[in-house]
Design goal:
The structure is a homodimer of 241-residue chains.
Chain A: E1 3-8, E2 12-17, E3 20-22, E4 28-30, E5 34-39, E6 42-50, H1 52-67, H2 81-96, E7 110-118, E8 124-128, E9 134-135, E10 143-147, H3 153-159, H4 166-183, E11 191-197, E12 205-209, H5 214-233
Antiparallel strand pairs in A: 1-2, 1-10, 2-11, 3-4, 5-6, 6-7, 7-8, 8-9, 11-12
Helix pairs in contact in A: 1-2, 3-4, 4-5
Chain lengths: 241, 241
Amino acid sequence: MTYCIGIKTKEGIIVASDSRTNAGFDNVNIYSKMFTYDVGDRTIIIVTSGNLGTSQAVYKSIEKDLNDKNVIKNLNTCEDFDQVAKYVGGLNIKHSSPKGINTDTVLLGSTFIVGGQIKGQPMELFLVYPQGNYIKPADSKPYLVIGEVKYGKPILDRVITPDVSIGDASRCALISMDSTLKSDLTVGPPIDFVVYKKDELKITSQKCLNLNDKEFSKVSGEWSEGILKIFNSFPRFDWEK
Amino acid sequence: MTYCIGIKTKEGIIVASDSRTNAGFDNVNIYSKMFTYDVGDRTIIIVTSGNLGTSQAVYKSIEKDLNDKNVIKNLNTCEDFDQVAKYVGGLNIKHSSPKGINTDTVLLGSTFIVGGQIKGQPMELFLVYPQGNYIKPADSKPYLVIGEVKYGKPILDRVITPDVSIGDASRCALISMDSTLKSDLTVGPPIDFVVYKKDELKITSQKCLNLNDKEFSKVSGEWSEGILKIFNSFPRFDWEK
């Protein structure tokens, strides 16, 4: 399984993904699920959950198309993020429905979060489905999650508002990821973590965080301590001594 | 769907359940999922998730058996909590496999959390499966959850330790319930909430909490405020201004 988060704040976009893959409980591995591209007038960040073969084939095709001078559509020729999402969706369908495979019994689909900015256009964040179609997050809850989405959702629902700062959104993404890591063995480190600030047209910060890395362990540790402080300050029930 | 929590602390047991039932998205209703019994030498608290017909039939059978003087096994004749769990498991199997129904296509099973104490014995907490067998929670994580268990798990994993106080465990149960209510529409109020203190042999506190009830809204509100305070006190990233 997998857990990926994309958050769109007014100041920028945050994207995070875990690295654990498993083909059965006894076949666990580590692969990056993130693809980043910031060249020229555009910054594009993609993360994926679902069938690893399909996800890797899509990333490979994206790279191949970027290096192919005769290709009509690639990340550089897309005029806007709708076209980027449609392009990723098309590759997703292509690689998840190979001829001769019974796709009724084997799940080959993948899901993607695609975010970033093209010069002169607004920042965008899309969720691309295995069927190739895509959605934007609601303005009132400007985040998207894919994979094992339930454990980390409550903290996002409490903190991510349209006016959240990019710093708080980043810390919230790390806590959401940490909560999922702690409660679900199929989601694991390291965490690929990218911050893109609006109109910079290049990635502001890109890190591969392990549990003991300063940035991650500080947020995770202060969160755990902070929670206990809240518990200490709660009013007591009548039946408590 | 449903969300129920049972926590066993050194000082006592906490059990909470939501009240939303749905037979399809457009057929939503409110039913209590809790059964309590504190008569004589024993206090028994039961909550349930799964097929509502089966759950209600089990509760009905428990009551019928209590009033039947010729019955061999009921909640009063069980010698210990293993027998209580086995008895509930037996009723569960009986009511979830009626003759003439194709149970391959219709899911009739229910799951139960059974907790409490019989005089002179230790407090107990069990999870009874649709198959009738049952487990205890691990000593290191003394809680059980059934139904929509993922949203509310991270806070339990961070707060519920073998040494947690019964007050903190109660507040944690309410926050875990609140997180699930906020993130999942299939879990809804009111919340049946029971506290049993060790060796009291009667229920210490039993409430049916609505969202605007003082006890629930205070914990939920202070939690939301406390979280934002933690966010304000976090160290900043290098890339933040």
